[in-house]
Amino acid sequence: MSSESKEGITALCGSLLGLTSLSVGLRFYVRKRQRAPIMLDDLCAVASLAGFIGAAATSIHMVQHRIIGHPGSPEIAGEYSAKLQIAWDVLTLTALSFSKLSALFFYRRIFYLGGGQSHLNIVVLITAAIIVVWMTIFQFLTGFQCGTHFTALWDGTYLEYCTISFPFLIGLAISDFLLDVWIVSIPIPSVLRLNAPWPKKLAVLGVFLLSLVCVYASANRVAVFAPLIKAGPEYLINFDYERAISNVVFYVDMEAGISLLVVNLPTLWFLGTLIKPHIRTLSSKLSQTRLLGSRSGNSTGASKTAVGEVRSPVHAGFETTPSMQSDKTPSKTDIITSWDEELEIGHRTVGK
Predict the structure, then answer these.
(1) What gap in Å lies between CA 226 and CA 220, rounded to an integer?
(2) SS3 for 313?
(3) How far apart are CA 122 and CA 163, in angstroms?
(4) d(CA 52, CA 260)
(5) Is the pLDDT of residue 319 over 70?
(6) What gap in Å lies between CA 194 and CA 188, rounded to an integer?
(7) Which residue(s) pair with 318 in the sheet?
(8) Greatest CA separation found in the chain?
(9) What is the mean pLDDT of residues 64-90?
(10) CA dihedral sign, ordered 119, 120, 122, 127
(11) N or C end: fewer C-beta atoms under 10 angstroms in the chain?
(12) What are phi and psi of 90, to 5 degrees?
């Protein structure tokens, strides 16, 4: 099962469709549990998911119609194929752009406290404007890569009229990679300024740096496009068109899906604060059972003391409150504290 096979493309799209839908759904579940408002970062995640669903569905449709994933298939050169590829280009670009915007507005949600000037707020807004312009330009070029000769993509006049297609492709791949590198670097100074111990700073930074996976995926796209650009359009059309397009579809779909997953991970960190106390409670009950089973009646008091020590919950590495140190299981109010609220508290103490 390779990146050029029908099995590989179908498996990738199917698995990422399920994972991305689940991650966005959990994102809104977390917002509900936090009693936090739905903001631009959440809406952009939904828009990215809509774009990715469309792109993945188009990819699977192209596999079913033998346009990609079938070596030597003549269907790759038809009018229907060209139109599907344009639709797929627009949808993947939409998914990638909105996942980038979601990441930017998430930074703004947790690091910008409002009021006065903030370098991070300015950087986020300027970068968001650049991404909107970037998306608009490249979506326009997708439809007009052959100028106004729209039929050149399938009527045999591609080499004559579609002179900007290859510069457009490599320009899109390189600019996408550079934007990902820039977006990954934006939150680093804000995290390092948090009023928190270094281990916690590094843990938070590690969550954000998971987006390096997106950088790897976009670098992979550049690596896929580079040989095609070097070989030239004549080689692509006359010798290896179906294989090349299948490869491109696989890696771009992978990049779009992984990007959407990664932008949801910081928000889903909060789920750990819900699960962790329940794991500790279960562990303490198991410890209690083992202690009661191994000690005689004379050591009952000591056993209770040991169990009481085990059951004291600690929330996400912070000191426990008196209500959380009782023998009963912590209430939802005690254990539900969003990690981004904790970041805001730490950031507020060092100024904007």
Answers:
(1) 10
(2) coil
(3) 38
(4) 9
(5) no
(6) 10
(7) 315
(8) 94
(9) 80
(10) positive
(11) N
(12) -65, -45
Tell me the per-residue pLDDT of 321-331, one tens digit each, with 9 for 90 and over. Answer: 333 333 333 33
Q: How far apart are CA 92 and CA 87, in angstroms?
A: 9
Among 103, 232, 116, 258, residue whose Cα is nearest residue 169: 232
Query: Residue 315 — φ and ψ, nearest 5°?
Result: -95, 110
- What pLDDT, in 10s, does the model give residues 172-227? 999 999 999 999 999 888 888 878 788 877 877 877 777 788 888 888 888 887 77
Alpha carbons within 13 angstroms on the beta-carbon side of residue 253 total 28
DSSP state of 331: P
Q: Two tokens at 214?
A: 């997106």
Residue type, 241: Y
How many whole angstroms from its chain centre is CA 30? 16
8 Å CB contact between 96 and 176:
yes
Whether 180 contacts 104, CB under 8 Å? no
Q: Which two tokens stand for residue 8?
A: 């590989």
Please spell the DSSP secondary structure of 170-211, one letter per residue. HHHHHHHHHHHHHHHHTTHHHHHTSSS-HHHHHHHHHHHGGG
**pLDDT given for residue 257 in this prediction:** 93
